[in-house]
Design brief:
It is a single chain. This protein is an alpha/beta fold. The chain folds into 3 domains: about 160 residues, ATPase, nucleotide binding domain (Nucleotidyltransferase, domain 5), CATH 3.30.420; about 150 residues, Nucleotidyltransferase, domain 5 (2-Layer Sandwich), CATH 3.30.420.40; about 220 residues, Carbamoyltransferase, C-terminal domain (DHBP synthase, Alpha-Beta Complex). The protein has an 8-stranded mixed beta sheet, with helices on both faces. Strands 3-2-1-4-5 form a 5-stranded mixed beta sheet. It has a 5-stranded mixed beta sheet with strand order 8-7-6-11-12, with helices on both faces. Strand 21 and strand 22 form a beta hairpin. Helix 6 crosses helix 13 and helix 11 packs across helix 12. The longest helix has 29 residues. The termini are far apart. The C terminus is likely disordered.
């Protein structure tokens, strides 16, 4: 037996993943256990969970691999600070204490948790991303693209995977970064970096590409897989608080938006413009990868891979016909990639795993749910399988909102039917209800559809055979169904689709099928089971707390079914949103 633990931490979305004999057995982001959104600390809780899930002790591990090389990243920070001094001095001084006391000591910190026996290995940031995309993909040979803010030095990389080997042959280096371009505009629009980029993507369909030509001035794409930023508009390489220079304000013609202030047509147009240019760059890189490697299969990871609109454009506008995007595209997924790289490449475990689902987090059993609900004094019914599906589907078809907690938690940022809030997509008011009374978030935010795999091409402009099990593609909703599916049809007529296969999630599949029997269309609204600013729920207690303080009508945990005596008309916002 070969047991490899992958670890990522110290920046955002810390996580641990455990691979045994080449197959992942557990993976979870630290935030899901600590309840601290985007928790970046050493993932001690996640490590403990992974070992417990596999029934292993730390002494059973062959190796623990950190997802990148801290010394190389530290070199980049020193080099960048010297190149941009004296502007970078204050930021450099602030950065040094955590680097000297924590980040450069990651090996010792891992030893403190794991003891002396496992080997401590170090991966490379973009190689870990690449491994997370190619090694669990269904492809024997595929081109690879990784795109994010920045790793050690690289911000993007292109390479090829064949069998159990992969190599990155071309890269873009800091400070030139597509991810940081998108994040700069995210911050300019008054949203939080590394958290709110998908708000920009969600807002984009409401605007016009009025600033697209100006955004194109910020980045030059060479057509062969490379690009460069015009750094006169950016200050991220100096490490200062504001990532842009006054020149960007002059180019755009209006000042940055203050956090939580009014969103105007200027902001909507800017969102549309940066999204359009990002799609153009991603499409150009995909074309370059196809031209270089001559394969129509492409694997993607890195935070930019969560731009599901751009992913769909790859299938629409390039010769790529087979696409696999790692659902945990960010640093959490890099922990899995590092572990797979060590297992398949370094330890020579056969590559015999295809990632068909992402259910690798902590499980909730019927017994655990019953104990937790009973301890809280909740009134619930324990239903047989057929009754559970029928009662839940009836509630959805009657426009009730359902909290749905089943089995093992998803790995990655998307809820995929195990920690979800479900609703009727045929309800004209469901977006308003979910955003205002349950999610407590901006009114422009869209909601995703879950659809039976075999029915996807009936309701969405998806060619037969194109699946989207991880909610990472945004095809158009077919014109004739847009009016019938207002809850999942975005302003531009698209929907971020999750295709559901019975073999992989039978209870969720049966629920959607029963909703389809009741209302004619086997589609449900699927959004993550959390409120704004909090991680997705994991335990029955967390689910019950969220249920009680929001406008959800029904809570289903395993086979436990409970309702509120009377739905809350105006549920109070969580305290952290009132501060």
């Amino acid at each position: 037996m070969t047991a490899i633990l992958g670890v990522s931490c110290d920046y955002h979305d810390a996580a641990a993943a455990l691979v045994v004999d080449g197959i992942p057995v557990a993976a979870v982001a630290e935030e899901r256990l600590s309840r601290i959104k985007h928790d970046s600390r050493l993932p001690e809780l996640a490590i403990a969970y992974c070992l417990k899930e596999a029934g292993l002790k730390t002494s059973d591990l062959d190796a623990a691999i950190f997802y990148e090389k801290p010394m190389v990243k530290f070199e980049r920070i020193l080099t960048s600070a010297m190149a941009t001094a004296p502007r970078s001095l204050s930021a450099f001084v602030r950065a040094m204490p955590p680097w000297l006391t924590q980040k450069l000591r990651i090996g010792n910190r891992l030893r403190d948790v794991l003891g002396p026996e496992p080997r401590i290995l170090y991966g490379e940031h973009h190689l870990s991303h690449a491994a997370s995309a190619f090694l669990p993909s269904p492809f024997e040979r595929a081109a690879i693209l990784t795109l994010d803010g920045v790793g050690e030095w690289e911000t993007a990389a292109m390479g090829i995977g064949e069998g159990s080997s992969l190599r990155l042959e071309q890269s873009v280096r800091f400070p030139h970064s597509l991810g940081l371009l998108y994040s700069t505009i995210t911050a300019y629009m008054g949203f939080r970096v590394n958290d709110d980029e998908w708000k920009v993507m969600g807002l984009a369909p409401y605007g016009k590409p009025a600033y697209a030509d100006r955004i194109r001035q910020l980045i030059h794409v060479d057509g062969e897989g490379g690009f460069r930023l015009d750094l006169s508009y950016f200050d991220h390489h100096a490490g200062v608080n504001r990532a842009h220079t006054p020149k960007l304000e002059s180019l755009l013609g209006f000042p940055p938006r203050a956090y939580e202030s009014e969103i105007t047509d200027q902001h909507r147009d800017l969102a549309r413009s940066v999204q359009l240019v990002t799609e153009e760059v991603v499409v150009a890189l995909a074309r370059a990868a196809h031209a270089r490697y001559g394969t129509d299969a492409l694997c993607i990871a890195g935070g930019v891979g969560l731009n599901s609109v751009a992913n769909w454009k790859i299938l629409e506008q390039t010769p790529v016909k087979r696409l696999f995007v790692q659902p945990a595209c960010g640093d959490d997924g890099a922990a899995l990639g590092a572990a797979l790289f060590a297992s398949n490449v370094l330890y020579k475990d056969p590559r015999r795993f295809t990632m068909e689902h992402a259910y690798w987090g902590p499980a909730v059993s019927d017994e655990e749910a019953c104990r937790a609900l009973t301890a809280r004094g909740a009134r619930f019914e324990m239903l047989p399988e057929a009754d559970l599906v029928a009662r839940t589907a009836k509630a959805i078809a009657e426009n009730q909102v359902v909290g749905w907690v089943q089995g093992r938690m998803e790995f990655g940022p998307r809820a995929l039917g195990n920690r979800s809030i479900l609703a009727n997509p045929q309800n004209n008011r469901i977006k308003e209800i979910l955003n205002a009374k349950i999610k407590f978030r901006e009114t422009f935010r869209p909601f995703a559809p879950s659809v039976l795999r075999e029915a996807a091409s009936t309701y969405f402009e998806m060619p037969p055979g194109v699946d989207s099990p991880f909610m990472l593609l945004v095809p158009p909703v077919k014109q004739e169904f847009r009016a019938r599916l207002p809850g999942i049809t975005h302003a531009d007529g698209s929907g971020r689709v999750q295709t559901v296969e019975r073999r992989l999630n039978p209870r969720y599949y049966d629920l959607i099928a029963e909703v389809g029997r009741l209302n004619g269309i086997p589609v449900v609204v699927n959004t993550s089971f959390n409120v704004r600013g909090e991680p997705i729920v994991g335990t029955p207690d967390e689910a019950l707390d969220c249920f009680l303080r929001t406008g959800m009508d029904v809570l289903v945990i395993g086979r436990c079914f409970l309702t509120k005596p009377q739905p809350l008309a105006e549920p109070p916002a969580p305290k952290h949103l009132l501060r």
